[in-house]
Amino acid sequence: MKIRNRGEIEKSELNMTSMIDIVFLLLVFFVMTFKIVELEGDFSVRMPLGESSGVIDPTDLPLKLRLQADADGRLASMSLNEISLGTDFEQLQANVISLIGTSAPVEGDEGPEIEIDSDYNLRYENVIDAITAVSGRKDGNQVVKLIEKIKFAKPRR
């Protein structure tokens, strides 16, 4: 049997350019969305010492600063560990200094911590003034750090 049209057999090639583009796009996508997860169980827990004398150091616990607002959002009163301070931020700073002192924390000790609990309608500038008062002060050209760990409670309505 004779085959009449014996032309060249056409070779079909697959265009790999679009496949390589897709592979690189997927690679870039997964690299950009990769999140590094912290190791579990890496907690810094301070356990109490056995047979303590029963006296609690106020700097062991987080200090609690309560900021109360009036109806217009102005600062009505402050209290540090349930001690009323009025509305004077300098008095707040003096009380913080009397509680924790001005010495730098010992290495390994994270230093004191404060929790700021404010009313929902309190003006933001009052919260910033409170943070400024508890975080440090300027002594000439030198900055004296007081409390570096500041956390916030949920605002009260």
Automatic annotation (TrEMBL):
Pfam families: ExbD. The chain crosses the membrane at residues 20-37. It comes from the Bacteria. One of its GO terms (molecular function) is transmembrane transporter activity. Keywords: Cell membrane, Membrane, Protein transport, Transmembrane, Transmembrane helix, Transport. InterPro entries: ExbD (IPR003400). It is a single-pass membrane protein; Single-pass type II membrane protein. GO terms for biological process: protein transport. Its main location: membrane. One of its GO terms (cellular component) is plasma membrane. Coiled coil: none annotated. It is found in: Cell membrane. Belongs to the ExbD/TolR family. This is Biopolymer transport protein ExbD/TolR. It comes from Novipirellula artificiosorum.
